[in-house]
Each structure stands twice: as C-alpha cells, then as structure tokens.
Specification:
With 302 residues, this protein is an alpha+beta fold. The chain has helices spanning 35-45, 79-91, 142-148, 176-180, 186-196, 236-245; strands at 5-13, 22-27, 50-54, 64-69, 74-75, 103-109, 115-119, 125-128, 135-136, 162-163, 168-172, 200-205, 215-221, 226-229, 255-263, 269-278, 284-290, 292-301. The protein has an 18-stranded mixed beta sheet that branches.
Length: 302
Amino acid sequence: MAVREINYRLVDAFTTRRFQGNAAAVVLGAAGLTDAEMQRIALEMNQSETAFVLPVEPSTDFDLEIRWFTPVHEECMCGHATIATIHALAEAGRLPAAQPPACEPVRIKTRGGTLTAMIDEEHVVWLDLVNPVLTPVRDFPPVLLEHLGTRAESIDGRLAATNTQDGDLIVFVKDLVTLNGLRPAFRELGDLCRQKRIRGVCVATTATVTPSVHVQSRFFAPAAGIDEDPVTGSVHGPLAAHLVASGLVPMVENLAALRCVQSSGTGRAGLVRAFVQRQGKSEWAARIGGSCVTTCAGILYT
C-alpha cells in the first residue's frame, strides 16, 4: 500500500512566545482523507484541536474549508485552530497577499457557518465569527459549582450565566483568587456537561490585575476530551458581547474593543483581542484576533 505524505504544522495561537497560548495542529492538505482518518490523526496529534484544510469548488463563494477534530470527536467551531490555520497557510505562501505580511480577507466554509479571516500589518490574524447568540441561564444546576470547585457565594451577581450558540456555558466569578483557585472534578463535570449538552464551561472575571485587560477566564471541556483548554478563541466572541451588552465595556459609535486574557492550570496563557459591534437592539457582531508562532513543521505519513 502506498504511503501518503501530508504537510502539517504545530502552531501556538494567541501568543508571540513559543509554548504559550493554545497549540493547534494544522493539516495543510487534507483532501481525500476520510472522517475516520481525520479522527485518527487528531488522536495521534493529541492537541485540543487539529484543523484540516480542504479545497472547495471554484464556483463557490469560499476560498477553503476547515474541519476541526478534538482527540475524541469533530467540532462545529474552533477559534484558535482557525487562527492557527490562517497563520500556517500564510507561512506556506498559500494565501492571497495584499502587502505582506497582510493578506486579503479569506472566506472559510465550516460546519458552524461562514467565517472570514485576514492578517494585518502587525501579523495579527483576525477572525470574524458567526454572530453571537446569548441565552441567559436563570437556574443552572448547583452541583455544577461543586464540580468546578467553587460555591454560590463566589458568583458575580452582576452578570447572568449565559449559554452560547456553540453550546458553551459562561459563568462569572467575583475575583481572580476564585478563578485561579478552581480545581474541577473533571470526571463529574464531564458527565454533567454531557447530560446537559454543554460543550464547555467558561469561568470568567472582570476583576483583572490591570485595567487594560477587560476580562480573564478559564475554559473547561472534559465532555469534549479537553479537561482545560489554555485559550479558547470561539468563546471570546460571546464573552465579549456579553460584557458589552451588560454595560461593563463602553461603546464608541456602536463599537467596543476588548483585551481578554485566558490562562490555565498548566501555566499556559494567551491574549485574545476582540471587537464587538452593535447591529441591532440585541444583535452583535464579533471579531477576535491574535498573534501566532509556529513551533514545528513536518510530514504526516498516512
């Protein structure tokens, strides 16, 4: 049987330092791979997400297609792996260049909807997300807090818990001490998330160390095979929109800019930049951005 060689890269997203931010594997030429092969490759890569770049028909409105797999299943949306993919494609010379390092907008076909990405003159990759949909959660199971390793007294009552269009739950706590001290019971949390159809839980606080950072968070997704994700791009669109809609971040001409930090118990952290634009009384558009650095490149044999 002939062995197929496919180029791949490992990219740290939302950071300018290697071994920080959130790592994603990017398989640059995934045409012809079956779903089962992509799942096996994602398990072999053993990253929170592996992105597979697929071609599209020239007659479509898209430039490329991306599919994302965790080690255990396919996802409908992943922000950090998409930003990592655009970075990897630019390094490989496979994006339309406006004036390097900038690139023209790229339209991406995904299972979760159409995304648009671009790179600016400072090498920051920007990604226009599907418009956030926020659904307030008035009563979530008290046992959820127990599984997270906190108590009801630690919850920030100014900000309601909310579900996102990607199936994530956002919960706010009062301070960084509570956030950094979380030690979830991952097995129990994963079981509860599967029961409630929750992809992951974002725990956030606005009590940051510096006023230049609007929010700091952690993200737990044991039901998706990821106990803790270092920096989760997709949740930052809804997270930023929630803060703006709640009046905690000012808008200028219907536009707000945020700096968001996400960290993890492993010591990895990253910076997500976000823009939120009002499009109606309760409708928002969100764009996230981040720097990337490649840690390795190689050949995948299948």
